[in-house]
Design brief:
Blueprint (H helix, E strand, L loop, with lengths): L3 H31 L7 H27 L5 H4 L2 H4 L4 H16 L9 H24 L1 H10 L6 H14 L9 H19 L2 E8 L2 E8 L1 H16 L25 H4 L5 E2 L9 H11 L3 E3 L1 H12 L28 H24 L1 H13 L9 E4 L4 E3 L10 H5 L1 E3 L3 E2 L2 H15 L6 H9 L1 H12 L14 H16 L5 E2 L2 E5 L3 H10 L2 H6 L11 H9 L13 H10 L6 H14 L6 H18 L1 H19 L5 E4 L5 E4 L6 E6 L3 E6 L9 H25 L6 E4 L2 E5 L3 H16 L4 H9 L25
Parallel strand pairs: 3-5
Antiparallel strand pairs: 1-2, 4-7, 5-6, 8-9, 10-16, 11-12, 13-14, 15-16
Length: about 775
Amino acid sequence: MPTPAQIERQIQLETQQIQDGITQLRDNTRKAEDNAYASSTAYAQKMLRTAIPAVAQEINKIRINRLIRGKAGAALADLAHYTMTIDDETLALLVIKVLFDVCTSPKDRDDLANNVIDRVGIAVEQEAKWRYFNEKDPLLLKWITQGQHSGKGLHYKDYDCTRRFKEKGISWDPWPRLSRVKIGAAFTEAACTATGWWQRQLKRTGKRTNAYIQPTPEMLTIINGLMRNAELFAPINLPMICEPNDWTNEQAGGYYCNQARVGNKLIRSFGVARLQGETPLQFLNHLQRVAYQVNPFILGVANRLEQDSYAVKLGKFLPADTLPLPEKPYDIATNKEARSAYRKQCVEVYDHNSTSLKRCIRTKLTLATARRFAKEERYYLPWSYDYRGRVYPIPAFLTPQDTCFGKSLVRFADGEPLTERGLYWLRFQLATTYGLDKATMEERQEWAKSPEALAIITAIATDPIGNISEWEGCDEPFLFLAAAEEYYSLVIAKTRTHTRLATAVDATCSGLQVLAGLSHDGSTAELVNVFPGSKPSDAYKAVANRVNPKLPQEWAIQLSRSDVKKVVMTVPYNSQPHSNRQSIRDALKDRGLEITPDQLTIIVRLTREAMNEIVPGPMEVMSWLNKEISNAIKSGRDHIEWTTPSGFAVKQDLRKVNTERIKAHLMGRVDLHIGTSLGEPDLNHHKNAGSPNLIHSLDSSILQIGLKDFAGPFTVIHDSVLCGANHMDAMQAAVRDAYVEIFLHHSPLHDFAEAIGAETPPPMQYTFDPETVKESTYFFC
């Protein structure tokens, strides 16, 4: 139980994170407004989506009356063709965006009526221009836009596109300013009339009276209300320094302050969630009591790498790598060539720095959080469920569900002397993170004890920066570095006695493991290590070997396990042939192999056929699930529900949303969600999501049943479990016992059939006994 002093510190921390979140929201809003980009703010995004239909309707009236019926005057007559190529919704988007950006800008005279109207006219002309270019040469436009740097603004992109098309002999005749202003005035009037958010105001300065377009009091009231609501959800979710509150079906858990809990629910879903059983609640609250601390060794290495701007890409450590601007040539004023070269160099630096800052955000925030909690002896994580029963930490940083670098910063706060079996599993962690995850247990142990491994461990534990080449190319570089330092300190140098490292084991293709249990399919169980074996089975390699003999010899292509891995992993989650094509194409391209579309079609077909031959039980189950879920929705259900063997209550409520898609060439695609009520059930979404959701609900049930009262520090990453090395044997047994409990003492597929009112019995193979998983060495490895 936390002491009053600890609770007081936690409340102070939450109060600070609430204030930090509000400050960040306000700063970002102010910065956007200062840069004439208020349309990107939280309030503008909300208002824009509600305003577009009304403004589009008003624009349609103006276009019909003034352009089509010829009431616009001679100045607009020649432009009717161009403006009519832009649909009403896109025009509304352009106009409202400009009004938000310009009318809230703090710069003097930006909101002068003439300037605002002109900016609206310019935006409309730019959109018309790009549509004209797309009509003339769509391939050229696509090539230009794909090659433009992501950090460039709209004005540069427009200039660059216009210049390149002119070089190809395709020119755009600029609109006369008077015509552009008249169009801008007409559409600005439409936005003001439809929304009542902006008004024309006269202001006298000296002897002159100027007209301005400014927000109305009604608009400011709406903005203030939206910002107040946004601030309720603004708190930054950080780890806690004392145990989180327990969750119940009636009381929210996690953080202590009400405002810190806003937006964090037991079940991450829309609508009313179902009441949960005792086991899911017990597991979640038990998980929240696990204490962590920042790994000081990894943080020290990261600080040095950040200082040197050194990226470890395999570990997702990407620090800022900004370059200084080049020095100006001494003769820049008179030397045209030197001035041109200097400007080109500056553009390259700006582009590099823009990309670097975007890439480094995750690393930067992770380091900031780690430094904030580095002095804490222990911290805790509040957790919650998604609607399928998978558990997620509420904070975004310093959690086990992070990048390789982020996970390596986390270790258990409660250490204990390393036992002989703990040493075994520490060596396992070393070898697995080094890259021997497909080797046998014996091979991993032998490698970790070899002179080669001991030399690497010693080198990187004593001088990680000087020997970075020894670890940055490993499968999981930062996790290997953390394991090496732990092993060196406990076993080689013996400078520490207590182990705190989180040792991890992963399920072997968990989707197929669950489907093997559902259908009791022995052939699948053998392929994914549910059956005992002397070495790890390899379902990916088995599929590749089944396909290769059927490929034409003249292709000279032999698929590897990595080529089909993603397909085999995702087919149990209802992946479709079009996504399988992309996976196989990318895998072959990584190996330097280019294939034709027809070849790819054949490879995808053969791969899916191989799945039907090798794992018949899972494929039949998925086909049955798709059919029966479709029947359930067609029969009139608006959602489906089922309860897992752990007592987790799943509610799959997938509705159609009335969405209108707007494509503006300069700004990309915008999806408008019109209306707030839920639509009718989405049949295709229900059918495609049913198999993945059932699988996820069951793999999470394995963890809930197996670990709800686990006696030792532990944590989870979906189908991976982590604990102190001394406790890994107990965790292995707990996971296997839970698998047996679910698939031998329950029949989840029959329970699911009853829950959704299935019209046909589920397909079962009954070719293996789930009890055999207790003897499987490589079930989780």
